[in-house]
């Protein structure tokens, strides 16, 4: 089992940047593909992006590619989400999640979830 704790959320003006971090504890971090998801008020949770065990492969939601970048540091048991050119519509609770599923890039039923961190983008 793995425990996940997100940090780095907050209030930012449109056009600004934030970097979220997700610290993992428990079983070997490098055994998990990691994903970032978000849920805006009144909407369903949606996929933002994911990264493979080694970090060699990354996938993003079409609408976010080019603005969001996922990275990981397996030595620090941490995955990051760099968010640039933020828009008010990026306002959401952001969750990181972990999975051992080999279809991590298309199956979003991840096994472990953090509690989320709020990102608010003002116009």
Terminal-residue CA separation: 40 Å
Can you tell me the overall shape?
globular
Mean pLDDT: 95
| Gyration radius, rounded | 13 Å
User: How many β-strand runs?
Assistant: 11
Question: What share of the residues lie within helices?
Answer: under 10%
Report a brief summary of the structure.
Helices cover 0% and strands 51% of the residues. The chain is mainly beta and 123 residues long. Strands 2, 4, 5, 6, 9, 10 and 11 form a seven-stranded mixed sheet that branches. A four-stranded antiparallel sheet has the order 1-3-8-7, with no helix packed on it.
What does this structure look like?
This protein has 123 residues and is mainly β. 0% of the residues lie in helices and 51% in strands. It contains no helices and eleven strands. It has strands at residues 2-7, 10-13, 18-26, 33-39, 46-51, 58-60, 68-73, 78-83, 92-99, 112-113, 117-122. The strands form two sheets. Strands 2, 4, 5, 6, 9, 10 and 11 form a seven-stranded mixed β-sheet that branches. Strands 1-3-8-7 form a four-stranded antiparallel β-sheet, with no helix packed on it. A hairpin with a 6-residue loop joins strand 4 (33-39) and strand 5 (46-51). The protein is globular and about 40 Å long.
């Amino acid at each position: 089992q793995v425990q996940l704790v997100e940090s780095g959320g907050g209030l930012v003006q449109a056009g600004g940047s934030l970097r979220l971090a997700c610290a993992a504890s428990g079983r070997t971090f490098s055994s998990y593909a990691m994903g970032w998801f978000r849920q805006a008020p009144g909407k369903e949770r949606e996929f933002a992006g994911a990264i493979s065990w080694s970090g060699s492969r990354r996938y993003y939601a079409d609408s976010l590619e080019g603005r969001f970048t996922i990275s990981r540091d397996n030595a620090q048991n941490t995955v990051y989400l760099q968010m640039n050119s933020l828009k008010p519509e990026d306002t959401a609770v952001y969750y990181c999640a972990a999975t051992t599923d080999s279809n991590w890039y298309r199956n979003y039923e991840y096994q472990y979830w953090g509690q989320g961190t709020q990102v608010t983008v003002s116009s």
